[in-house]
Design goal:
single chain; 100 residues; alpha+beta; six-stranded mixed beta sheet
Length: 100
């Protein structure tokens, strides 16, 4: 379960047995949700948010913060996905300590 970002208590990660579409899980405490990144011609056009069975959902503020981080880092998330799932390399975990 590689972590790719930590942002004010939010942890962004992949499960090791993931599937397409490219997505990232975000958790804080006992809450977790999945954010699917939809790209067209290399541009982020949509983020679909999914509830995880058996998990509490993130708070509205946590969802907003997650979406903002994903929007600002979507290209890096795709690269980290490719590093891990295509190249078999462990992606770097970036700790973000400044508000977006």
């Amino acid at each position: 379960m590689p972590r790719i970002y930590e942002y004010f208590g939010l942890v962004f990660f992949f499960y090791s047995d993931e599937h397409l579409p490219i997505h990232v899980h975000v958790s804080k405490a006992e809450r977790e949700m999945k954010f699917e990144l939809l790209h067209e011609a290399g541009k982020l056009v949509q983020i679909d948010i999914r509830k995880i069975k058996g998990k509490e959902i993130l708070t509205p503020k946590e969802i907003d913060n997650s979406i903002e981080l994903i929007k600002q880092n979507h290209e890096a998330i795709v690269l980290k996905w490719t590093e891990f799932f295509v190249k078999g390399q462990k992606p770097k975990n970036d700790k973000i300590t400044k508000k977006l």
